[in-house]
Specification:
- This is F-box domain-containing protein.
- It is a single chain.
- This protein has about 600 residues and is α+β, with helices and mostly antiparallel strands.
- Among the domains are: about 130 residues, no CATH class; about 250 residues, no CATH class.
- The strands form 6 sheets. The protein has a 5-stranded antiparallel β-sheet, with no helix packed on it. A 5-stranded mixed β-sheet has the order 10-14-13-12-11. The chain has a 4-stranded antiparallel β-sheet with strand order 2-3-4-5, with no helix packed on it.
- It is globular.
Length: about 600
């Protein structure tokens, strides 16, 4: 049996494996784990990974090498790509709804809200029973003058649409469907389904108009900030229904074409939010991605933008991989106290003059009269921003077809299980996200370990096509076992002082060279890491992987920790379910992570 082979033969087999297969083989049995846990073997296989490595094996103890390999495996999600189960099914809709009906589902899964013209209908999701029906407030709709203008500007006599900036309703339901938010054009309204007036009708909603309603900012937005002239693209309740996330599109300001704004004031919310809370705080701008971008830009020549910004839960805290990294600067005795201000982390696509990358950042804000500060904690690798161009692996010729066909006319769910290790190169830059799109969808898992990103239109040869690409990132953090800052940089290859005898371990260190990927990243010209607005680069870059390329556009994206799928019943480890909605169809991906 393979378990009874001499350790030398097992190691000869291991030396031919890629790092993902090596990681799996290391977990098979004691003899294979022992053979794969030798320091020199670990160092050799880690050279396949874009990660910082010591200049020689003796720099770390055998235990440290094993711990370091474990950190690399965890932060790069090794083992997650071997078995991905995907299900494409018809989404269960109310009986009188279609794929074009504007719908919102409560996060508890019990209710669904639909719009039919100016009527809002609330259904029980399982039974389909109509629970409530009411009319939307007339102030949601544009004034008749706007409609007339749109009609007069139409040159085709047989085609008379309302201006597209006011054409689409948007809707969101709170966690238990106590509140719904409705958007049309620039108008946002919040209704409380449990509050009625003396006539038994739904109470007048709280209302907010983009670019017109007087706003109160959580902190000063900066001199270069411009208010939005865009329209509502999506709505979502967050933070226990105390914040309303508003995605804004069709902007023509300097922040064009999109931005994200969070409305509300969680610190002023009662234990259970009510309509009075929203009437008072719907004009309170908790976070505005354009304002954050202005703050980050500062006096730079280039303009920074944040796309698809999403706040992380207050319980999420950053943790540097660098042992000596100083904490994010706090207030000093000469500065005003910040304890009453905002201190939150976020994920977004950061686009600047030299960087296009998904990031984790932190907002630290004093009271509203003083400016906020923004610091970028982590930049994830992307096509246009990665630790090194010298990444091992052959180029993938053309995108692999990963998605199953659309559901059949019988609406029967279709599923498939695929191994990404066989079809998509793990460390090939072509399979990284680009982070250049104006409206990516971002979703963080409920345990704050994973980030899922959907880039519409990505991965296709033609830009006029439905669908896009999904990527999985690890947001986990740890203090890296290996600390490059504690090891002096070695001379460059052309340095006269370098010689064949300059390495202790001889041939085992050939290939890593006199500098590591970490060193090259720090010395790259026009990089942001000499800037105190950015934390030092990760010692172990969290390299994302391509999960799938879809043939349909996703309208929403969620990821939660879940049980193993039936086909993997009894499997150990963390399983995650990613759910995307596309019209009348629902797509789910399930995979394990450690």
């Amino acid at each position: 049996m393979a378990a009874d082979l001499p350790i030398e033969i097992i190691q000869s087999f291991l030396s031919y494996l890629d790092v993902e297969t090596y990681h799996s083989a290391r977990q098979t049995c004691f003899s294979w784990r022992s053979a794969a846990s030798v320091a020199s073997m670990l160092r050799d296989v880690l050279q396949q990974v874009p990660v910082s490595l010591p200049h020689c094996t003796k720099s770390l103890s055998p235990k440290d090498w094993n711990d370091y390999f474990g950190q690399v495996a965890r932060l790069n999600l090794l083992g997650s790509r071997s078995s991905v189960e995907k299900i494409v099914a018809e989404r269960k809709l109310p009986h009188d709804s279609s794929s074009t009906t504007v719908l919102a589902f409560s996060s508890d899964g019990r209710k669904v809200v639909g719009l039919k013209g100016a009527q809002t209908v609330v259904h029980a999701r399982e039974s389909g029973e109509c629970l409530l029906q009411f009319s939307l407030a007339s102030s949601l709709y544009p004034h008749w003058t706007s409609v007339c203008r749109a009609l007069m500007e139409t040159r085709n006599a047989g085609y008379m649409p309302i201006n597209q900036r006011y054409a689409k309703h948007r809707i969101a339901a709170s966690s238990d469907c106590s509140f719904i938010a409705v958007g049309l054009g620039r108008v946002v309204q919040v209704y409380n389904l449990h509050e009625h007036d003396e006539n038994g009708t739904i109470a007048t909603p709280a209302e907010y108009v983009l670019g017109q309603t007087d706003m109160v900012f959580a902190s000063s937005p900066g001199d270069e900030y411009e208010d939005t002239d865009g329209v509502v693209e999506s709505l979502e309740f967050t933070d226990d229904d105390t914040l309303l996330r508003v995605a804004i599109g069709k902007e023509t300001t300097i922040h064009r074409p999109t931005r994200v704004r969070y409305l509300g004031q969680p610190s002023q919310s009662p234990e259970i939010p009510n309509l009075a809370y929203w009437r008072k705080n719907l004009n309170h701008v908790y976070v505005d991605s354009a304002s954050l971008a202005v703050t980050l830009t500062g006096d730079d020549e280039y303009r920074s933008t944040f796309r698809g910004l999403r706040l992380l839960p207050p319980s999420f805290h950053i943790h540097s991989q660098h042992a000596a990294q100083h904490p994010i600067p706090r207030s000093t005795p000469s500065e005003p106290a910040r304890e009453k201000g905002l201190d939150r982390c976020f994920v977004a696509s950061l686009q600047t003059g030299h960087t296009d990358s998904y990031c984790i950042g932190q907002i630290t804000s004093p009271p509203a009269t003083l400016p906020q500060s923004v610091r970028i904690h982590r930049l994830f690798p992307s096509i246009y921003f990665r630790p090194s161009d010298l990444v091992p692996g052959a180029r993938t010729e053309g995108p692999p077809r990963l998605y199953p066909p659309a559901p059949s006319s019988e609406r029967s769910p279709q599923s498939m299980t695929y191994n990404l290790c066989d079809s998509v190169s793990r460390w090939n830059p072509i399979n990284l996200p680009s982070a250049t799109f104006s409206s990516p969808l971002l979703a963080a898992s409920d345990d704050r370990r994973l980030l899922i990103v959907y880039e519409p239109g990505a991965g296709h040869s033609c830009c006029i096509v439905d669908g896009g690409s999904l990527y999985v990132f690890s947001m986990q953090a740890c203090t890296a076992v290996y600390q490059p800052a504690q090891e002096p940089l070695s001379p460059s290859p052309s340095s006269p002082s370098s010689s064949p005898d300059s390495h202790e371990s001889g041939s085992e260190d050939s290939g890593i060279g006199p500098e590591t990927i970490y060193d090259r990243l720090r010395m790259t010209s026009a990089n942001p890491f000499n800037d105190d607005r950015y934390d030092p680069p990760d010692i172990i870059p969290c390299w994302p992987f391509l999960l799938d390329r879809t043939s349909m556009d996703l309208e929403s994206l969620h990821v939660v920790r879940s049980d193993a799928p039936p086909s993997h019943g009894g499997s150990e480890g963390r399983w995650y379910t990613v759910t995307g909605q596309s019209g009348s169809e629902m797509i789910q991906w399930q995979f394990t992570s450690g």
